[in-house]
Design goal:
two-stranded antiparallel ribbon, ten-stranded mixed sheet, single chain, alpha+beta, 13 helices
């Protein structure tokens, strides 16, 4: 017990010795971890919005060719899908991004008016669009930004469309988007007869068969019936598309740069600490401390800085998400809730950052001989 108290005393003494430097180091690593929590939390909120699109419409599988926005899939495969025993409904769709005004663009979904995806939407005013008509439906967020209501007109790619209705969706990615007849979006995009995906709702699983096993079996049956196409579970499609991958890459890339700066800050602090305490380290070695004990002392101090910075960074990241969740521009996309996997991930990164930053200073301290250390001026 005495040894552990003595060890803890050394750690606490050193962290208090240069309080301003310690606080500045904590500030650097805290900002780095705060950026990580905020950016990764934002990207995961973005992923959750995609998942809500499928969960709210009860879409189980998406059939695609190639990538998320690829529109080379023949619309005719819809009829073949409907013949597969496990398929209850199949609905072709296009997802695109169009310029609505000189400074406003939005996601545009091309659906058929009689398909099940529309059942998940709440019509706030007006009505559904009709196939073959120059009509659109606007999400309530987009309609507010464009200042449009049912009966108004909207010019898209040189074609005048009438706003048929305003809807609300559980997903912000649809609430801030537009839906139009599939055939009209095909015409605008010059992809007649082609779609991005065919959304599939499966029949109920047979009694006793787990749902996950049933979905995998349905995937295999669909891909066997339609060679060259991919049948992807809705949850996987929500997390693996160009939009989500771009947001994740941006979050991790920016966070990595911030973490490198934080690690350098801790490393600089620990190098200065070892240099200033050379005689103290020599005294400890002369009192019987081994190289391993000295190395562990420096690494432990560095890890404490990393973990404390991680705790503060979690609070900063949560604060950033809390603010974003209440700003009108981002409130529909961002959740202020931080999930446990992200908390654990942040703390592991904070601990690893501290250990990495302290590795070189600890190695240097461990190599000091007692005689040379005590002679150090």
């Amino acid at each position: 017990m005495a040894g552990s108290l003595s060890f803890a005393k050394f750690v606490w003494k050193n962290l208090r010795r240069r309080r301003l430097r310690t606080l500045l180091t904590l500030g650097g690593i805290s900002m780095s971890l705060g950026a990580f929590v905020g950016l990764v939390g934002f990207s995961r909120s973005f992923e959750q919005q995609w998942l809500r699109i499928y969960s709210s419409s009860r879409t189980d599988i998406a059939v695609i060719r190639g990538t998320f926005l690829n529109t080379s899939l023949d619309e005719s495969v819809t009829a073949k899908l409907r013949e597969i025993p496990v398929v209850a409904q199949a609905a072709p769709a296009i997802i695109n991004e169009l310029d609505l005004t000189s400074d406003e663009n939005a996601l545009v979904y091309g659906w058929q008016a009689n398909q099940y995806q529309l059942d998940s939407l709440q019509i706030l005013s007006g009505r559904r669009f009709r196939d073959g008509q120059l009509e659109v439906m606007l999400g309530d967020v987009l309609a507010q930004g464009l200042k449009k209501k049912p009966g108004d007109t909207l010019e898209i790619e040189g074609t005048l469309f009438t706003v048929a209705g305003i809807y609300h969706s559980p997903s912000a990615l649809q609430a801030d988007a537009m839906i139009m007849p599939l055939d009209e979006l095909q015409q605008l995009s010059s992809v007649q007869g082609k779609v991005s995906t065919v959304d599939v709702r499966l029949r109920p699983a047979p009694p006793g068969e787990p749902w996950d096993h049933y979905v995998k079996r349905a995937q295999a049956e669909i891909e066997a019936a339609l060679p060259g196409l991919r049948a992807i579970p809705a949850a996987e499609r929500a997390s693996d598309n160009q939009f989500v991958r771009l947001s994740q890459a941006s979050a991790w890339g920016t966070s990595a740069l911030a973490l490198m700066i934080g690690i350098l800050g801790i490393a600089n602090t620990m190098v200065m600490s070892v240099f200033e305490r050379t005689q103290e380290i020599g005294t400890l070695r002369s009192m019987g401390w081994t190289r391993r004990q000295v190395l562990f002392l420096i690494e432990f101090e560095s890890a404490i800085l990393g973990v404390c910075g991680g705790v503060i960074g979690l609070l900063l990241g949560w604060g950033a998400l809390f603010i974003l969740a209440r700003l009108p521009q981002t409130a529909t996309f961002v959740s202020a809730t931080i999930e446990w996997p992200l908390i654990v991930q942040a703390m592991v990164i904070a601990l690893a950052a501290g250990l990495i930053a302290g590795a070189a200073p600890a190695w240097r301290a461990g190599k000091l001989s007692p005689v040379d250390a005590l002679r150090h001026d």
